[in-house]
Amino acid sequence: MDHPKHSSGGPQAIEFGTADKAHQRIKVWDPLVRIFHWTIALGTIANLTVLRHVEDPHIYLGYAMVGALTVRLIWGFVGKGHARFSAFVPGPKTLVQYASALVRRQEPRYVGHNPAGAVMMVILMILIAGLGITGWMMGSDQFWGEPWVEELHETLANIIIGAAVLHVLAAVVESVRHKENMPWSMVTGYKRTASGSDVDNAPATR
């Protein structure tokens, strides 16, 4: 995972494309990935705002998010293309190289998740799992009324707010830097094809 592939055909360097190629679009995010993304995004917003103190809907939505996370984790191993964890979760070397390029404002455009985005995705998954576990514990007989469980649940919720804000800001910056609407690509599933120094770290989905 420390050697991202340039283009869907293998590790060879991408040749500089024509203007026409630069405007071509390919399917990157499959329906399950997009449904998971928006289920988690909208569910998190709802449970941390309007449903924060509405007990039953908050609980049911939390379980729905944990269910979505479970499906996504399975899909990360059995799915294809950019959905697979092996396609985008970076090794230490790749992450350090990308971070260094990012500081210099020379980071390449990734067709799929870039290394920083991949790390954030993993962190958010862990936080969501933690929220689900502590939420379940709060409703169980064994941990009912335990202050530390409630405090941990609240702390995880606050951390996920900060992580989500950072994620959104990063998506906006990346959209501007690479002239591509990142949030919209998670709606349509399509992104601009790789050209020049772009990195396509997995085959396009069908």
Rg from alpha-carbon coordinates:
19 Å
Would you tell me the overall average pLDDT?
86
Going across the major beta sheet, what is the strand order?
1-2
The run of helices and strands is HEHHHHHHHE
InterPro entries: Cyt_b561_bac/Ni-Hgenase, Di-haem_cyt_TM, Hydrogenase_cytochrome
Transmembrane segments: 35-54, 60-78, 114-136, 156-176
Subcellular location: Cell membrane
Membrane topology: Multi-pass membrane protein
Note down, in words, how this protein is organized.
It is found in: Cell membrane. Keywords: Cell membrane, Membrane, Transmembrane, Transmembrane helix. Residues 28-189 form the Cytochrome b561 bacterial/Ni-hydrogenase domain. By secondary structure, this protein is mainly alpha-helical. The protein has a single domain (24-192), classed as Transmembrane di-heme cytochromes, Chain C (Fumarate Reductase Cytochrome B subunit, Up-down Bundle), CATH 1.20.950.20. The protein is 61% helix and 3% strand. The chain contains eight helices and two strands. The protein has helices spanning 19-22, 31-48, 55-78, 85-88, 92-103, 115-139, 147-177, 182-188; strands at 25-27, 190-192. A two-stranded antiparallel sheet has the order 1-2. Helix 2 (31-48) runs antiparallel to helix 3, helix 3 (55-78) crosses helix 6 (115-139) and helix 6 packs antiparallel against helix 7. The longest helix is centred in the C-terminal third of the chain and has 31 residues, at 147-177. It is elongated, with a radius of gyration of 19 Å.
